[in-house]
Amino acid sequence: MKRICVNCGARSGNDPRYRQMAQRLGRALVRRGCELVYGAGNIGLMGSVADAVLEAGGAAIGVIPTLFRQEITHQGLTERP
Q: Which residues pair with 79 in a beta bridge?
């Protein structure tokens, strides 16, 4: 199993294509047998990637500084900080 780290925004931006591409990336990772390692957020582009991975049956591993754990940590993560 491979783990791929993805860093992206906590906002989705003004163009819906960014969110769509984040979702496509998440699904592609699962198809290729990769686990997602990312910033653990449930919002913005990082949330979109994680949601797509989890919906496709993949694993999402969140890494987040202690300061932000309570605020935006995705509750569906395979592994949580």
A: 61
Give the 3-state secondary structure of residue 66.
helix
| CA of residue 37 relative to chain centroid, distance | 7
CB 30 within 8 A of CB 4: no
What CATH number does residue 26 fall under? 3.40.50.450
Does residue 77 belong to any structural domain of this protein? Answer: no
Per-residue confidence (pLDDT) for residue 80, from 0 to 100: 61
Whether 24 is in a domain gets the answer: yes
For the segment 16-36, what is each residue's pLDDT rounded down to a tens digit? 999 999 999 999 999 999 999
Pairing of strands 2-5, 60-62: unpaired
